[in-house]
Structure formats: structure tokens, C-alpha cells
Design goal:
The chain has three domains: 87 residues, RNA polymerase II/Efflux pump adaptor protein, barrel-sandwich hybrid domain (OB fold (Dihydrolipoamide Acetyltransferase, E2P), Beta Barrel), CATH 2.40.50; 223 residues, Chloramphenicol Acetyltransferase (2-Layer Sandwich); 47 residues, Irregular (Dihydrolipoamide Transferase), CATH 4.10.320. Helix content is 24%, strand content 21%. It contains eight helices and 19 strands. Strands 9, 12, 15, 16, 17, 18 and 19 form a seven-stranded mixed beta sheet that branches. A hairpin with a 2-residue loop joins strand 13 and strand 14. The chain is globular. The termini are far apart. About 18% of the residues have low confidence.
Amino acid sequence: MADFVIPELGENVAGGDVVRLLVKAGDALKKDQPVLELETDKATIEVPSSVGGVIKDVKVKQGDKVKVGQLVLTVDDSATAAPAKSADKPAAASASAAGAATADTPAVPVAPSAAPAPNEANAPNAPNAPNVAPSKVVDISRGAAPRPAPAPAAAPASSAAAQVPAAPSTRRYARELGVDITAVEGSGPGGRVSMDDVKGHARSIITSGGGRVASQPLPDFSQWGEVEVQPMRTIRRITAERMASTWATVPHVTQCDKADITELEKLRQKYAKKVEAAGGKLTITAIALKVIGAALKTFPQFNSSIDVRNDAIVMKKYVHVGVAVDTDRGLLVPVLRDVDRKNIVQLSVELAEFAAKTKSGKLAPAEMQGGSFTISNLGGIGGTYFTPIINAPEVAILGMSRSVTEPVWTGESFEPRLMMPLSLSYDHRVIDGADAIRFLRWVCEAFEQPFLLSLEG
């Protein structure tokens, strides 16, 4: 007999929710055959078996929360496993799409919208409406980030911590929360520390450190009418925790401006077919990746992270940019690597590849880690400006809104120009206002002078 347990799923991924079982007791199982779909903090993935044989017992069911190392199957490995029937394997949970998904919008649209637009990964549209599309690109303020794994329960306690009167389960709980148990004031006999003491200490740290008020219990809404309580899915729960923490601890400032993309739109339409032939779609987001890649080299403080504990700023030599997208499972932020070294065609093709992976639920957790800046394009949905929340530990994020043709004074007359609103949120601990507007003006000018952007390199 052999056991199959949840394997390591990636850095900082401790487990997830069982979305779907792909096998049952009595099935013949081949090694590396997918056995279940698991929704982690960042994505829905298929987990393959490390053993083969005939399944004797299945220890989990759909909807269960499982952890790395938890028993899933017992298998009679002395039996010969026959090839799995394709009919036994359900389609990936995220494989359906109710509309045309794009490289920028690898998601299931929630509502019909206007025709495809140039700021999405669709075919070219009329130049006076480049940002109207069935887009699902959304605010990274709701982007989901990796959830830290609990500290190992077997970690040895320090001599000071060992002297604190507390049960082993309480010590383990403190380690999982990252709380120094020696700093917790015990309320029990002889100063014994309880789990409630640890919770209270953690709450006081959050409140005093970030100004965040602990959540209050909700009233019974059913006294006023019918309600339905829906449990949070894993990605939504992590999103809520991540954004609340970021908003509480990072001093946000948002600077806004407009870029004249009239000439850029002409260039986009001119080269759209060429990019499609290469396997991508020339979108405003792909062009923005190229612009931001150059901007981060010119303004390196925007490509950094603050290390508060060590009073230092980490300057990154690489340029990895995340693109905030929405899916039927929640918000995801795939990261494109080394965008400063790639041309627009390459970036467009990568966005298309991410679209295919996201639609099939194949986007790996590692492909959503390591970003140093984020772009959030809401242009295909509408609006003018917004205040995106920084994807900490990054220090800035660029929001893009719907482009609109406006009369612009040229010094002699008004001319119709296609103007794209931009919103730059930044961490004021690292970036000053003057630097922020210089950065945003540089980005605007790069959009306004498309001849500076080479499609070949």
C-alpha cells in the first residue's frame, strides 16, 4: 500500500480548498495523473499523484480545506494501473468563458460590454473609442498576493520563550501569527498566556502600528429581511486580508494626469496585424509594459521596496511587472519578467500566453510572484480616474482608465485628441510628490511620442 499526500505547492503556499476530485475509490491511478483541483491563495491548480496503482480510499471531499502533507489517497501500488479514462477527468473549473477573453483579460466577463478596444487584447477598434472592451482588467487594490505559510510547529523555542507559562498549542499559535510570546501579558494564574491573550496582543499591534480598528461584529441582518450567507473563497479571503493590511500600513498618495495617445493609437492600428501574426495582440497594456519598463530604469526608486525593520530600501536591479486581471475565481496578478529587455511584440505574445493559462486554470503560483511594479487597466470598463492600492511590498502602481476624445487647445485652436487618464499611487515613505509627478509626466510623454517605442526592440 502507498499513501499520497498534498505535496509542496510553491513558496508560501500552505494549502487550499478542494474544488473538484478527479478520481474515486476503485479507479486505476497512474503516476503523475491529476487527482484533484486545488484552489490556493493565488490560483486553481491540478495536483498530480506521486504514486500509481488502484485507489483503495479517498480521504478528502470537495469543499474540504487541506494542507501540505495531508493524506489524500491510499493506493494499492501492487496492482497495475490502467490508463485513466478521459471522461473521468472533469474540465478545469476555470476553463469556460462567456465572452471573448483577451491577453489582458484572461477571465470570464461578468457582463456584456462594447466592442473590443485597443487597450485590451482584441482586434483594433475605432480610434475614438480605444478603451471600450469586454475587459476584466481590474484594480490591483484587490489583487491577491501569496499568503505566508505558518511557521513550523516543531521550531525550537528560545530560552526566554521557554520560560513563559503557556501551553504548547498556545506557543504554536503565537508562532503562526508571528507574535513574540515573551511580549504577551498573560491573564491566567501565575501570568499563564492563553490563546485569547495572543489574539489580543496581535490585535493591539495592528491597531497601534497601522491605525487599523479591529472589525466589529455585524448585526443580525435577517431581522430586516431575507439574507444569504456565502463563505469566502480562498482567493477572496486572502485578497481581503492583503488589502486591509496594505491600506493600514502603507501611506498612499495618488497622482493623476492625462496622456495624449492620438498618434500612439494610429501606430497601434498600423502594427496590430504584425503582432497578431506573431501570436499576440497589440494592446495599450502591452505598450504600457514597455513604457513602464523604461520608466523604472529612469526612476529606480519606483522599483524598490522599503525594509522598515532594518531602516533600509531594497533597490531591485530586475524589472518584473505585474498586470492585474480578474477571473471567475477572483483577482490574479501574473508577472511578466524582465520587461525592460523585451520589445512590444514579445510582451504582447506573453500576455496572450498568460490569457490561455488563466482561462484553463494553469497559471502557477510562481508566475504571480516577484513583481516590482503593477499595472491596472480599467479602460475597457469605463471611468475616468481611480486610486489603486499598492501591491506591497512594491511601492507604486499605475492605473489606466478609459481614453476619450477631447478638444485640446494647441496654442492656436482646439483639436480633437484622444486622451487617456492615468492614476499613479505611490508609497509616500519612499517616494516624494515631486518625484511622483516627474515619473508620471515621463510616462505620459512616452505615450505621446510613439516613435520612441520600437516594435522591433
